[in-house]
Amino acid sequence: MQIKFLGAAGEVTGSCYLLTAGKSRVVLDCGIFQGSSTANLKNRRKLPFDPAELDAVILTHAHLDHSGRLPVLAKHGLKCRVVCTTPTVPLVDVLLRDAASIQKQDFLRRSYKRSQRGCENGGCDPLFDEKDVVALLKLLSGTKLEVEREVAPGISVRFIDSGHIIGSASCVVTLKEGASTRTVVFSGDIGNPGTPVIRDPIAPLVKDADAVVLESTYGDKDHVPIADTIERFAGILKEALASGGKVLVPAFAVGRTQTLIYVIARLEEEGKLPRGLPVFVDTPLGIEATKIYNMDPSLFDEETRAVRAAGNQALNFRGLKFTRTAQESKGLNDLRGPAVIIAGAGMCTGGRILHHLRNRAGDPNTSVVIAGYQAAGTLGRRLVEMKDTPVNERPSVRIYGQPVNVAAKIFTLNGFSAHGGQSTLVEWGRQCIGAVEGKKPTVYLTHGEQRQRLALADKLREATGVECKLPMLGDVGQIG
Ligand SMILES: [Zn+2]
To answer: Domain limits of the chain?
Structure first.
C-alpha cells in the first residue's frame, strides 16, 4: 500500500493525498494552494490520477485548502462518494459556491482589463464554476463522528473530532489488500484546545495503525492563552466604546466569526462590557456559517451547552446585527457612535472589510483588530507590519487602487487561532503514536512550512522516539 503526497507537503495549503492498495484508489482531501506565487500553477497542474477511477474521496473538513479542488475532480468525471462529517456538507456547499462566484468575478474583471489593453482573451479560465460545484455537491455524503463506515468495498473510515471548526475531523482510514489490512491515521487540521463553541481535539487511539499523517502548521510555537486574548479584546472594545470609535475586525467566515460573536456575548453577560454595544456581522458567508453552527448544538462544547441550558443564546445577543445586503453594508458608512464591524475577508484580500478600511482607516479614532493569520503580501499583513510605526511615518496602503493613509490604532490578537500550537500537536502525536501496539507507525509531518515541521519533528522525537518523515510534493511512501 502506498501514500502519495499531492499537496500541503512542506507548505500549509493544498492538502491532498492519494492512497492505493491493490486496485483500490482513495483520495483524502483535495484543497487549493493559496498565497504563494506558484499557487495558481499548482492548482492547475494535472493530477496524477483519473478522478473517474477513484473508489472513494474522504474530506477532513470544509476549509478551501482541503476542499477547494474537489469541484475540479467533479469536472473531470468523479463518480464516487465524497464522504465527510454531517456539518461539513452545508459548509462545503456555501464555501464552494462562494469560491466559484469569486473566481467568476475575478475572471470577468481580468477579461475587461485585458480587453482594454487589446488582448482578446481573459487569461486563465476559472478553476471551476457553479456547475462543477453542483456536480460535486451531489456526491457529498455526511456521516456521524466516531462511527466506522465502509465507503467502498474493503475501504472504511472513522471520523474523530479534531476541534478546528464545526465538523472538522481526524480520520482513521482502513484499506484491505488481499489478506492484509492497512490503517492510516490522518490528523486533519487540529484545533486549539479551549477555543470557544467547538470541542477540543481528540487524538485517535488506534492500536494497529501503520502510518500517522500529522499537521504541523504551528509546529514551532505555542499561542497566547485564550483567556488572556479575551481579556485584551475586552480592553480594546471598552476603550473604543469610551472614545466613540469604530472597531473593525477582519475575520474568517467559518470559525473566527462565530468565536468573536460568542466572546462578545459572554463579555456582556459577565458585565465586562456594557450591554447593547452595536456589533455588525457584515459578511454574507459568515452569516451563513453562523446558521450552520446553530444547526446542531449537540456538537458544541460543554461550556456552550451550559450557556444554552441557562437560557442564553450562544451565538446571539441584543446588539448583534447581521447585514446581508450590499446596501445594508454601505449603510454602515454613515453610522454614528461606537460600533464593532466584523467583516470578511479575513486577510483583507477582498470582501466588505475593504470598503470599511477605505472609509475609516484614516481616522485615529478607529481600531483595527487583527485576530487571525495574515499571509505575506496581503493587506492584512501590511497593517500588522505598520502597527508599531508612528502614524506620520506609515506608508500608505492601496485599497481599490487608491492610496489610503492609515491613522487607525492597529492591534493583533494571536490567541484565537483555530490551529493547535506546538504543545497541542506534540501531545496529540504522543497519544496517537503511543496507542499503537508493537511496531511503531511511520509518521509523516505535513501541512506546515519546513521550519515548523522540523521543530515539531525534534519535539516528537523527544516525546516518542519516532523519527518523522517530511515528505515533499509528489513523494510516495510505502505503508506497512
Ligand atoms: Zn482548516
So the answer is: 2-221+418-478, 226-412
